[in-house]
Every structure is written in C-alpha cells, then in structure tokens.
Amino acid sequence: MTPAVPGLEDASREDLLTLIGELRAVNASLLARIGEQDERIAVQDKRIAALERAASRNSGNSSMPPSSDDLPGRKAPPRRGGSGGKRGKRLGAPGSGLAWREVPDDTIAHYPSGVCGCGADLADAADEGVARSHQVHEVPLTSATVVQHDLHQTRCGCGRAHVAARPGDVAEAPTSYGANLRALVVYLLVFQHLPVERCAQLIADVTGATPSTGFVHGMLARAAEAVKDVVALIKTLITASHVVGFDETTLRVGPAGTKKHILSASTDLHTLYWLGGRDLATFKDFGVLTAFTGIAVHDRYSLYDHPELTRTLAGHQLCAAHLLRDLADAAETYPDHPWPAQADRALRGLIRAARIARDAGQPAIPPEVAAPLILELRRAVRCGLSQIPRVPGPVATTKQHPGRLLLECLRDRETDVLRFTGDTRIWATNNTSERDQRPHKTQQKISGRLTSDDVTRHRMTLRSYISTAIKHHVNIMAALRQAITGNPWTPPAPATT
Fold first, then answer.
1. Residue 469 CB: number of other CB atoms within 10 A?
2. Contacts of 406 (CB under 8 A, 6+ apart)
3. 455 with 474: CB under 8 angstroms?
4. Strand pairing class (243-253; 258-266)
5. What does the pLDDT read at residue 8?
6. Which residue of 24, 292, 424, 483 could cross-link 226, Cys pair, CB 3.0 to 4.6 Å?
C-alpha cells in the first residue's frame, strides 16, 4: 500500500495537477543544470588532461632539451640501459686512469731519519736501494712573466740603418698580452662558458696577470675575425658531405633577453652554427640546406621540408630518437594500447641492427634482419591508426588526437623514417647535432643571456672552430693559439675515393 503524502489528503485534483506541473518544471531545471555541469566537467577534464600531459613532457617523451628536466614541476625521464640506471661509466666505454710513468720528470730520494731501536743514528745506516716509489702528478703554480723584445738597430758600412723585425706574435703596441694568455681568455669564455668578469678574475688569481674586462670581452671579436676563413671552409666541407644533421635551439640574447634561435649543421668531423630566427629567411641565410645535395637528418619541424630549402637534397632521414620520444609520449597517453610499445621495440631493433652492421663494415642492414622488424613496425602503425581516428577538418588547422600525426608520419613517410636501414652511412638519430647544441644551453645556464647579436655571432664562429677541432682530436688551446698568432688550424680536406 502506497503511503499517503502528508498534507495532500484533502487536496483537489486541480491542486495536484498544479503541483505536478511545478515538480516537472523543477525537474527540467535540475536536468538542464546537470547537463550544463556535465558539459563544464567535460571541458575541465580536457583541460586537466592537457595540463597533466604538458606537465609530464620531458626530454624522454618530447623534443624538450635535457636542460629542462630539472625545472620546477618537471619529472626527469627514467634512464634506459645499465644496471638499474646507475650513473657512471657504461660497459664498453673507454676508460682512463692515472698511469705510471716509466721516466718521471724529476726524482726525489727520501732516506730514513732518526735513531734506530739499538740507539744508532740512521744517517749512518747502509743504503739498500729503493724499497718502493710513489709518483705525484702535479702542475706548477704559474705566474705571468714579462718578456721585453728589444729591436736593435744596426748601421751598414754604406751608412744605411736597419732595425730588427718585430716577431709575428708580438703586438705593435709597446705593451701587450702574449698569445698564450689571449688563447686562455677565449678558451675560458667560449669553451668553459665563464662570464667576462669571472674570466678576468680567474686569470688574475692563477697567473698574476690582470687583464681588464674590456680586454677580455674584446678578445671575442678579435679571435672570431682570426678564424672566419676557417669557418667558411667548414661550411663548404659540411655542404659537400653525404650526411648532415640539422638542429635548432633557443637562446636569450640582448638586454631584453630576446628569444633567438641557433641553427646548427653537424657531421662526424665538422660543426657550424648560425644565429637568427626559426623562420625561412634565417634558414636561407644559413645557406647550408639550400646548397646541400646529401641526406639531411632532422626532426619533424616543417621548414626542413620547405620546397625552397630542399630542391637539391638527395633525401631526408627523420630522427629516430625524436620518434622514440613521441612513442614514449603515446605510451603514457594510451596506457592500454599495444602499438606504442610494439613500434618502439621495432624501431629500437632497427637502430641496433644498423649499428651492428656499420661496425661490421656492411653497407646496409641484412634483409633477413631488417624485414621482420620493419613488418612489426608497419603492423604497429596500422593498429594505432585503427585505434586513434582522425578528427575531421582542414589538415593544416585541425588539432588531432595525441599520436595521430605521429602514426600518419610513420605511414606516409616510411622511406624517410627507415632510410638508415639501407645505408649505414646515414645516421639513425640526430644525437650528434643535439650534443653539438648542448654547450649553448650550458652557456645560458651559467652566464644568462648574451649581451648582443654581434657578440653572440662571434661566439658561434669560435664555437664552430672549436667544435670542429675537437672532432679532429686537436688540442683546443693549441688551435686557439694558432688562430691568435695568425696561423689558424684548418681541417683537412676529405679523403677522395
């Protein structure tokens, strides 16, 4: 039996109908409010998901540099390989130690002193030879020396006077700093990233010389001028290479900290930097891509495919390291999808096979090794495309679901993704270029923004020279001293086949 509603026992039919109408209106209002709340919650869920995804981005699942992993709120990616991801030398990496030197620079003999237990003076004891030896590797405490060059004048019997020629490494001014000190200034500024004042202070503390900050800062322009012809040659050698990696990174420049970009072109033996924007005009001014006829290794930034920059290219190789980061992001976004892990496994297998084939002197990955891995990658891509539908709309402006554009790239640009499998000379990843860009981030972390575009360009010129010298196993200080004395080190011409 349905219980009676209090107060309605004596209500008329009209009163009940009125009440029902009011209840229906209230119910409709509540349903509308719930619908609005559901829409608001859905929008907030999307925003939260977008914020969580943005906060989870790091150098392991995106193109963000490793220098951003230690920023507040960021979580560094897990370390791959090794035993538990421990820091330190990896298995197979070359090691170094403090070696024993058979012929030391100096030897100091030490004899026992004092009194023996029998009461005899040990100074009168018989010498039985060296019991053991200890070698100490030490550097001398240096102090700047002043060398005066007196240019004598002589007079010939015919009456003509002759003054001795000034040595080439001696400046025309009455007093100057020598080539070693000038090279040290450039080394500390450009390679060790010291700010100008700290550079001057370090030299004063270590050598006793007291160069002014103006002199230290001015060495950048003078040294850059000394190596500009070598850097022009480096550009030519890079343009003539078979494989070149291209990359770009941001740098704050000028009093206002204007955002600039450093473009780089790298080979195993050469490095070139260029300061500008991340636009077509800067890429044209850089001038490497427009004249390059080899294989360009790069990420998926659209300008690398611009028709005005790629007319002479033999082909592209999309950086597999960037693709692996995007697959890591997809695995985090879709934890229940199997395709990211499958594609990651296949791509890593191909990279490893390419390294083994190259070390064995093979021109390509053997077909019996490459074919199953490529098939696994293709199946992963097809699976992903079936699970992540395309959002309808214009291709250029419609925002797609995370991972969709990656899958379309793996499908539509398979040749550019897997070009390295057919030619072991081609890099699978652009890690060399990324390593070449890292010093600029270190510079910014230590010294902050650079003072001007001109000074930054001087640094880029010198860094191109230094990085190329390092790749040729040339001592940096020796290369800088050669440049400062007017005889800069020059990279050798490539061997002809």
1. 24
2. 323, 326, 327, 330
3. no
4. antiparallel
5. 64
6. 483
**Rounded mean pLDDT for each run of 10 residues along the chain, 497 residues in total:** 57 81 89 90 84 72 63 65 55 76 92 92 91 89 88 93 89 88 95 93 92 94 96 96 95 85 96 94 93 95 92 94 94 94 97 96 96 97 95 87 94 97 96 92 80 91 97 96 94 76
Question: What is the rounded CA–CA span in Å between residue 297 and residue 304?
Answer: 9
Residues 85/78, Cβ–Cβ less than 8 Å: yes
Predicted confidence at residue 484, as pLDDT, reads 93
Residue 305 CA to its chain's centroid (Å): 22
Residue 458, φ and ψ in degrees, nearest 5: -60, -45
Buried b (16+ CB within 10 A) or exposed e, 154-178: eeeeeeeeeeeeeeebeeeeeeebb
- At position 408, the amino acid (one-letter code) is E
E strand segments, 277-353:
295-298, 315-318
The structure tokens listed for 327 are 């697959």
Q: So what's the pLDDT on residue 84?
A: 46
- At which residue do the structure tokens 């005899």 appear? 120
Determine the Cα–Cα distance for residues 187 and 107; give it in Å rounded to an integer.
Answer: 33
The pLDDT of residue 74 is: 66
- 470's enclosing H/E stretch is helix 453-471
CA distances from 302 to 213, 280, 404 (A): 43, 10, 17
Between CA 247 and CA 299 the distance in angstroms is 8
What's the N-to-C CA distance of the chain in angstroms? 103
Chain center to CA of 194: 19
Helix 179-186 with 196-207: angle, nearest 10 deg? 140
The answer to whether the pTM exceeds 0.85 is no
